[in-house]
């Protein structure tokens, strides 16, 4: 390093004009300036502070002076005293890289690294300063979408991260100090979307960085916490429209129909646009959407380099801690769905296994177990990537648990006391509504699933009377068509969405109506989920046999055309006992407008506990 | 290297009742929370532990949360550097003003230029920053060198050591191992030198079983006492 100072009025009188100053001269000059403070002579020192404190546009000579001072100081850090030179340290730590030229940035970061490595006292301040740069200052937030802003962002953040890396090499315990700082400085979920996204990017960058192993779990769970914070801010009221008379299954068909019109009209690629109207303009939903996309991209890159499994383990823990325990999370759970879709073999089965484990383990609270089985049912039904054997095996474990429960119970219907059992039964039926055709192909279906299910459903506890009528009717209809059971009792639910019993077992939380993986209403996230997602319209129920001989229950290509055929078939369908089921599944809900509103069983929509987005 | 010791301790670990079905993991978790932090009770940093549960019946403490108290006898490997101890570490950065060292792979140490004895001068050799001795041309400290240095002070919170290369018995371990007897003019047996080499090997590998370390630690403290005596005379 050899520096030429060209300065008309030098800030440091000793450093004369146009004189080549050797490295060591410069360093010893700064050392003198620093040490002389203790003897009461602080002129030089004050000059130094003034140079550091300079803000706003700098002339070329001022920049040169600043760079020289920073470089000189970084060689003399051992002479800096945190009490004597407090003002100098304060002005160094208040400098902002986002406003600096690249040469100043480099010199400043060199100084910060030297400071951090010189003494334990400065490590925290240096890390705080670097983390402070994760978010641009206010003036930059609007610029981040322009090319100039993007290149500046790259310049700053790449330097900040490489500095953190160098500090970690010199002070191996620094990541341990860094973690709480990053979490503390995490912006509040009410902050601007750009700030949240930039900060999230940095958290994920740390996670994938060299000391990722040390910070991974905190960064990822911190990120998921942010998602949940936003998620709970989106009320179910924002999603739900007042037309709550629709059934659980038919709403999707409805939406697809609307969508095809939509597409024809304005070429919109997102068929679920209309159902999202409740979320339009909801800032929390938009922020959540952007952050989820960020995490999806990150997971994708993890999969590409083969380290998805270690990330997934942490996501799983954080899901169990935050998402599963949150009151009916709306969207955050799709992170798990996406991760499972990336690696169905490992992550996909791991997730299902964990949910079943929670459900069958009586050490967990009833609400958690019911929530877990709701996630499981929705997940097994909706994941297009799941193998039939995984679905059948998970079902088998549920069925075994329910059967054991039945054997121990003598009593009558009691939705409150046996709520876990009912939620298990409902889950089994819900999954079978989606997957009956494929699970019937499993060799041990009859012996290990069908027979026990028959016992469970015909037990005195009467799960068929308690579970959601729409699921029960659809299930019975499919099993009738497949010739599985002969039910002696007729279930005349009419087109009730819920029964008094189901409300009771679902409790205040309405876990009976919780279908976590119902179609994702966030626009950008949905495009990631969609390719791996089973819509109800894609399901080929067992009563839909005439069409073709393929055994595949999920038919992707012909989904839209089939909707039409499907509706036509329904019109021809005239089995008496399934009249009600027909209403439930029909595409146009014309029979049900009006009547349901006056239904005394139902609470008014405003005060009614929320339900899954599309079930209303 | 000084500063390492094995201590036997009696402990009581309080476990939350929710952990009663996996208490072993819970104890491991509790003890692991001690690792790499300075603990005043032990007067050092816990680097490793092994434990025996003394009583299979844990005491349930009454109260709002009926915690389980599990009594343990634990063997802890402690790192407690004190001023004037000799430590060994690997150089990770050399600048004109300082030498940065990492001890045992986790604790950072810095030796500022005023603590480097005048024998060493800063040079740039083939683009590499080094401190080399004016007296012994082959005594060079650069990135990657294992050095022995004196502890000046320890920042307990972040385990940052401020060190010194002022005493002549400090410097590159490799060089000292070969030349220390020339300098101190003593009758150091070859056997001892071999031992010292072994030490640096141990240091390099980093992971040593507790027993091995406790024995070596014993040797080292004796040796360093000898060295100090020699230095004094």
Q: What does the model show?
A:
The complex is a heterodimer of chains A (616) and B (233). Chain A has 616 residues and is an all-alpha fold. In chain A, 59% of the residues lie in helices and 1% in strands. A two-stranded antiparallel sheet of chain A has the order 1-2. Chain A has a domain of 252 residues. Chain A starts with a strand and ends in a 31-residue tail after the last helix. Chain A is elongated. With 233 residues, chain B is an alpha+beta fold. In chain B, strands 1, 2, 3, 4 and 5 form a five-stranded antiparallel β-sheet that branches. In chain B, a hairpin with a 6-residue loop joins β10 and β11. The interface between A and B is medium-sized, with 24 and 24 residues. Chain A: This is RNA polymerase I specific transcription initiation factor.
What's the short story on this structure?
The complex is a heterodimer of chains A (616) and B (233). With 616 residues, chain A is mostly helical.
- Strand segment tally of chain B: 14
Q: What does the largest sheet of chain A look like? A: 2 strands, antiparallel
- Total helices of chain B: the number is 4
Strand content of chain A: under 5%
Low-pLDDT residue spans of chain B: 185-191, 197-229
Task: Quote the distance from N terminus to C terminus of chain A.
Answer: 71 Å
The CATH class of the largest domain in chain B turns out to be Mainly Beta
């Amino acid at each position: 390093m050899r520096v030429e100072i060209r300065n008309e009025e030098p800030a440091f009188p000793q450093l004369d004009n146009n004189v080549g100053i050797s490295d060591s001269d410069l360093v010893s000059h700064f050392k003198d300036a620093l040490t002389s403070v203790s003897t009461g002579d602080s002129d030089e020192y004050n000059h130094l502070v003034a140079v550091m404190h300079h803000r706003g546009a700098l002339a070329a000579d001022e920049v040169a002076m600043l760079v020289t001072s920073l470089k000189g100081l970084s060689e003399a850090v051992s002479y800096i005293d945190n009490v004597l030179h407090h003002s100098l340290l304060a002005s160094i730590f208040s400098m902002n890289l986002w406003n600096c030229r690249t040469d100043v940035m480099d010199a400043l970061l060199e100084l910060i690294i030297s400071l951090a490595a010189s003494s334990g006292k400065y490590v925290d301040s240096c890390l705080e300063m670097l983390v402070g740069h994760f978010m641009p200052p206010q003036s930059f937030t609007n610029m981040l979408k322009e090319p100039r802003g993007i290149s500046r962002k790259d310049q700053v953040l790449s330097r900040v991260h490489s500095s953190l890396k160098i500090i970690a090499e010199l002070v191996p315990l620094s990541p341990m100090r860094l973690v709480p700082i990053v979490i503390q400085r995490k912006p509040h979920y009410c902050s601007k979307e750009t700030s949240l996204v930039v900060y999230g990017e940095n958290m994920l960058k740390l996670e994938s960085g060299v000391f990722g192993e040390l910070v991974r779990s905190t960064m990822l769970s911190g990120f998921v916490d942010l998602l949940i914070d936003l998620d709970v801010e989106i009320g179910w009221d924002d999603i739900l429209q007042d037309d709550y008379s629709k059934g659980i299954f038919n709403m999707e068909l409805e939406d697809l129909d609307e969508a095809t019109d939509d597409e024809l009209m304005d070429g919109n690629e997102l068929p679920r646009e209309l159902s999202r109207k409740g979320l339009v303009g909801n800032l929390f939903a938009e922020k959540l959407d952007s952050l989820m996309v960020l995490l999806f991209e990150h997971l994708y890159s993890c999969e590409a380099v083969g380290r998805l499994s270690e990330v997934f383990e942490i996501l799983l823990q954080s899901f169990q801690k935050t998402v599963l325990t949150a009151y009916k999370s709306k969207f955050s759970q799709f992170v798990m769905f996406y991760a499972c879709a990336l690696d169905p073999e490992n992550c996909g089965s791991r997730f299902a296994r964990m949910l079943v484990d929670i459900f069958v383990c009586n050490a967990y609270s009833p609400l958690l177990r019911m929530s877990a089985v709701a996630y499981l049912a929705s997940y097994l039904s909706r994941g297009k990537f799941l193998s039939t054997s995984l679905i059948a095996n998970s079902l088998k474990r549920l069925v075994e648990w329910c059967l054991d429960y039945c054997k121990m119970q003598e009593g009558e219907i009691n939705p409150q006391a046996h709520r876990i059992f009912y939620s298990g039964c409902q889950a089994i039926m819900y999954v079978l509504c989606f997957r009956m055709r494929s699970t019937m192909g499993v060799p041990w279906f009859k012996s290990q699933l069908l027979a026990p299910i028959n016992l469970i459903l015909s037990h005195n506890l009467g799960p068929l009377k308690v579970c959601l009528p729409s699921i029960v009717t659809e299930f019975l209809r499919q099993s009738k068509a497949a010739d599985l059971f002969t039910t002696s009792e007729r279930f005349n639910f009419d087109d009730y969405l819920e029964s008094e019993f189901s409300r009771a077992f679902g409790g205040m939380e309405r876990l009976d109506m919780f279908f976590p993986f119902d179609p994702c209403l966030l626009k950008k996230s949905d495009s990631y989920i969609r390719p791996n997602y089973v819509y109800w319209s894609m399901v080929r129920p067992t009563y839909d046999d005439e069409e073709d001989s393929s055994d595949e229950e999920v038919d992707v290509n012909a989904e839209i055309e089939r909707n039409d055929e499907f509706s036509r078939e329904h019109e021809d369908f005239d089995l008496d006992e399934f009249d009600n089921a027909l209403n439930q599944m029909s595409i146009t809900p014309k029979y049900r407008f009006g009547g349901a509103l006056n239904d005394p069983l139902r609470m008014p929509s405003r005060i009614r506990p929320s339900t899954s987005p599309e079930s209303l | 290297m000084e500063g390492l010791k094995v201590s036997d301790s009696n402990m009581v670990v309080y476990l939350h009742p929710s952990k009663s079905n996996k208490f072993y993991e819970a104890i491991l978790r509790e003890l692991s929370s001690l690792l790499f932090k300075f603990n005043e009770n032990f007067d050092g940093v816990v680097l490793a532990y092994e434990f025996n549960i003394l009583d299979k019946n844990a005491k349930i403490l009454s109260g709002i949360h009926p915690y389980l108290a599990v009594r343990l006898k634990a063997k802890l490997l402690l790192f407690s550097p004190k001023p004037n101890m000799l430590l060994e570490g690997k150089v990770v950065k050399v600048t004109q003003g300082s030498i940065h060292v990492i001890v045992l792979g986790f604790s950072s140490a810095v030796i500022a230029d005023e603590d480097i004895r005048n024998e060493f001068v800063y040079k740039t050799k083939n683009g590499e920053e080094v401190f080399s001795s004016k007296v012994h041309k082959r005594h060079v400290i650069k990135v990657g060198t294992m050095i022995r240095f004196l502890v000046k002070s320890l920042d307990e919170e972040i385990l940052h050591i401020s060190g010194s290369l002022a005493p002549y018995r400090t410097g590159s371990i490799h060089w000292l191992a070969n030349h220390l007897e020339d300098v101190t003019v003593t009758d150091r047996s070859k056997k001892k030198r071999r031992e010292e080499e072994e030490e640096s090997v141990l240091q390099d590998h980093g992971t040593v079983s507790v027993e091995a370390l406790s024995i070596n630690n014993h040797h080292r403290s004796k040796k360093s006492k000898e060295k100090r005596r020699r230095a004094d005379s």
